[in-house]
Amino acid sequence: MDALEPGGAVVEVRCAPHTFEETVAVLGLPAARWGLEAAQRGAEAAIEGGPRTAETVRQLLSACQGCFLAVLRGLRTETAPADLAVPGELLASVRGAVRGGVPLPRLLRMMWTAHFAALDALVAVTEAVVPPVEAAAEARALTAESFGYVEAFSDAVERRYAAELSDWTGSAAAARMEAVEEILAGGPVDRGAAETALGHSLGGWHVAVLLTADRPAVRLDGELTRLAEVLGADGTVGLHRSPTTLWGWLHWPARPAEEPAGRIRAGGPLAVGVRAAVGPAAEGVDGFRWSHVAAQEAARLSGLGHGGVVGHHESSVAGLLTANAEHARRFALGTLGAELCAASAKARRLRETLATYLAVGRSRAAAADQLHVSPGTVAYRVKQAEDLLGGTVEGSGWMLMIALEIMRAFDAVGQDPAAGAADGQLGGPLGGRGL
User: Fold this and answer.
1) Fewer CB within 10 A of the terminal residue: the chain, N end or C end?
2) pLDDT digits over 319-333, tens only?
3) PucR C-terminal helix-turn-helix domain: which residues (predicted)?
4) What is the signed CA dihedral for 30, 32, 36, 37, rounded to 10 degrees?
């Protein structure tokens, strides 16, 4: 264990803070940091070929870190498998798996796949530092001992899965989810039955809010209640989709007067580690559905928001333009060229200046006022952009504006269109066909 040293970029701690602190106390900080790197390799192996959404990655990283750090502590302290506490992060992920419809065999397969990948890294270090005549035996011993821990974890997961499934299938939460899924499907809905299951009126006006947290410890239902108070809603309904994700809806008898995302920001910061994607106010059963669809699209482009909050009004145009990511990527590259589409700070600055300049009717003074620079700086940057475009921006404003808005969406999710996927699917933070 003393030879374990982190090698790459610092991996963010996704497990519970006390889990990492306990590991540091047992192994030391370098080995604990190395454990995070190995756990990340495990998570990447486990999710390969599956739905790579931000929430899936978040849950998987937390569970993988909790599990592999526990294994490392057990190996160092020579703890018997029956005596090593099952990681809370792993047990928390079981509830999300049940509510997300993940079958138990797949969940167990992902757990073992993650362990194999992380264990490979540990064996590689062992073989590099242990004399060759001893390395094979040492690797076999590490493998056998670690398997004992993971087998104990598997037994605990099976028991927790059965309990969670029993609670979920017979609970009011399951009835609410069934009603919501029926509404979101867009077909005919028995409104009376749906309202009974939800305990929520489907008349009036609705605003959907998707809340996500960095860690399961955050009470998202409490945050939804606070947002209802900020916005003056007269009712809420919330569904936990995972330990770190909540689908919520707020209700008003009449259309709310203020744009909801802006009002949420004005009402004070969200809880630490929480992000909100907010749909538009919409009426009736169809409005309940549409606001949620729009909130999901806003979540896909969450980088366009501010203060952890993104609203549909901020992301709707970009969402529409990037619904087919391959077409959007090729349009932006074909219109702006590779240099102006680059992910560099200079290219982003030129795009921002050009977009502002065009939006204010090519007024250097107005653009300078919005960008907080001098008119001369605006003129200089526009000239630089025109040099990259190979011509003046006169006469092609609307084409450029579309391409620049597409690039704003790419920037929001941290993607370089020049490095787009060959199959035309650029997966964004929450997956899907778009960015």
Assistant:
1) N
2) 778 777 788 888 888
3) 350-393
4) 30
